């Protein structure tokens, strides 16, 4: 992408409405524009990151064997009357009437609708296990939308629903989601800690929230410092192997890690003092096991091998896709701007032409741009007629993890400069070597 032809409305000044750094940088980097309280347009740069995050979510869901579909944003109220949640959900639900005076709502979540799909089409244990998910816009009329996309009213969520024949199978689905979420967040450069939580309006027996530690987080958290060292890494997981998946969950949930809702001071005191931590966290996902809560209320049954009919066992599992942009920035920035992890960056690398209009630097930049493109990497090429300082400031603000700087002096010696946004370290090398290095850095990220 050539910056001269892109739409990147960066702001020089700090917007006064933004209280936290991620909101400030998302506005300044021209990623989002507020249209109403808690409702945002996704401008091109923000949209690219959102799509990257969605793609990682899809890839990791596929790895776990989960099936994508797409349900609508608008739902008939009658489905929610069946589960009893239409009245319970209260003012957070946006209620709408259509022209025939029928009660509709903008979905805050989809347990009822997915249960309706299931009961219409599935009736036998032979079709199980099955997990369906989608990535779709939700609306919750939050009392205090704030912090930009972090607590929006309209927000993008991945929500998945498992259907299983019995409790053991449903608990395996719960565990499978926990493990696949761990990898999902790790690929985004995040450490998200599963913490025992409270089930709220979704209901159920077992639930974990995934929290990214950040001083601006909305939840107070209590944890053993050793949990932050746990990593799934490159481990190959057989998602059908119940013992293996349960073993990984155990590894990640045995050390103390809880939100204020489930905090137990007596248990917390048993942790060695130097590892006992109180902090704040951003909730980027939550998984729930709730058994037959919805299937019983809505008559979603399956025939078992012995011919009897039982309500199907279920759980639901959510990732805050749009919130993740805020969480990643909170976890990865400095005083100049965002520092995107390679996994989610809108562009893998930026090219800065220090002397636009100079035949040799223009030619070198074009060559780099095309060579990267040929390797499947789309650079953001700053080809504007701007001062070098302004170009560097923009690159630092929008946070591409790597920058290639091309100037006449370097070119005279046959070199360009490759700079890491994270460390600020630069290295001189030939253009070919820079392309090879960038390709190598992104292996495993695309
Ligand atoms: N049906 C279940 C699981 S699919 C559910 O709705 N879970 S949830 O309420 O925990 O939401 C899932 C995730 O969506 C949360 O962990 C959070 O990351 C994100 N989320 C929830 N509310 C908002 C909001 N107002 N703005 C942005 N993200 C939100």
Topology (elements, then pairings):
Layout: H1 21-28, E1 32-36, E2 39-42, H2 44-63, E3 67-68, E4 74-76, H3 77-83, H4 85-88, E5 94-97, E6 103-106, H5 111-121, E7 130-139, E8 154-164, H6 167-187, E9 192-196, E10 206-213, E11 219-224, H7 242-253, E12 257-259, H8 265-268, E13 276-291, H9 293-298, E14 301-303, E15 309-311, E16 313-320, H10 321-331, E17 333-334, E18 337-338, E19 350-353, H11 359-374, E20 380-382, H12 388-398, E21 402-406, H13 408-412, E22 416-420, E23 426-429, H14 431-442
The structure holds 5'-O-(N-(L-cysteinyl)-sulfamoyl)adenosine (5CA).
Question: What keyword list fits this structure?
Answer:
alpha+beta, 23 strands, BirA Bifunctional Protein, domain 2, nine-stranded mixed β-sheet, 446 residues, 2 domains, Rossmann fold, five-stranded mixed β-sheet, binds 5'-O-(N-(L-cysteinyl)-sulfamoyl)adenosine, 14 helices
């Amino acid at each position: 992408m050539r910056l001269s032809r892109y739409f990147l409305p960066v702001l020089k000044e700090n917007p006064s409405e933004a209280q936290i750094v991620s909101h400030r940088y998302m506005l300044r980097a021209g990623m989002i524009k507020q249209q109403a309280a808690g409702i945002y347009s996704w401008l091109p740069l923000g949209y690219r990151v959102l799509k990257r995050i969605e793609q990682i979510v899809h890839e990791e869901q596929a790895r776990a064997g989960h099936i994508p579909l797409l349900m609508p944003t608008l739902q008939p109220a009658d489905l929610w009357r069946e589960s009893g949640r239409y009245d319970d959900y209260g003012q957070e639900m946006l209620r709408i009437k259509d022209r025939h005076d029928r009660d509709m709502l903008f979905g805050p979540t989809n347990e009822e609708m997915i249960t309706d799909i299931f009961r219409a089409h599935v009736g036998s244990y032979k079709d199980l296990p099955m997990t369906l998910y989608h990535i779709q816009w939700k609306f919750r009329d939050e009392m205090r939308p704030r912090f930009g996309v972090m607590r929006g009213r309209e927000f993008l969520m991945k929500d998945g629903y498992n259907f299983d024949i019995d409790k053991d199978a449903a608990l395996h689905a719960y565990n499978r989601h926990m493990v696949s979420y761990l990898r999902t967040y790790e690929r985004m450069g995040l450490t998200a800690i599963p913490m025992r939580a409270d089930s709220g309006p979704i209901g159920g027996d077992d639930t974990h929230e995934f929290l990214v530690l950040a001083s601006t987080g909305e939840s107070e958290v209590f944890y053993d410092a050793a949990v932050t060292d746990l990593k799934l890494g490159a481990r190959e997981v057989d998602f059908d192997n119940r013992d293996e998946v349960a073993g990984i969950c155990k590894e990640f949930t045995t050390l103390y890690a809880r939100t204020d809702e489930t905090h137990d001071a007596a248990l917390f005191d048993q942790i060695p003092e130097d590892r006992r931590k109180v902090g704040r966290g951003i909730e980027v996902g939550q998984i729930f096991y709730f058994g037959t809560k919805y299937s019983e209320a809505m008559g979603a049954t399956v025939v078992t091998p012995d011919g009897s009919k039982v309500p199907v066992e279920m759980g639901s599992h959510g990732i805050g896709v749009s919130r993740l942009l805020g969480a990643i920035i909170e976890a990865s920035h400095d005083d100049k701007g965002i520092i995107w992890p390679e996994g989610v960056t809108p562009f893998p690398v930026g090219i800065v032409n220090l002397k636009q209009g100079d035949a040799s630097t223009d030619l070198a930049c074009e060559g780099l741009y095309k060579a990267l493109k040929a390797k499947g990497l789309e650079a953001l090429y700053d080809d504007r007629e701007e001062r070098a300082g302004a170009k560097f400031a923009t690159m630092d603000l929008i946070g591409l993890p790597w920058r290639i700087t091309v100037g006449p002096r370097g070119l005279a010696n046959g070199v360009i400069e490759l700079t890491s946004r994270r460390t600020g370290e630069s290295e001189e090398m030939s253009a070919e070597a820079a392309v090879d290095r960038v390709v190598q850095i992104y292996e495993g990220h695309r």
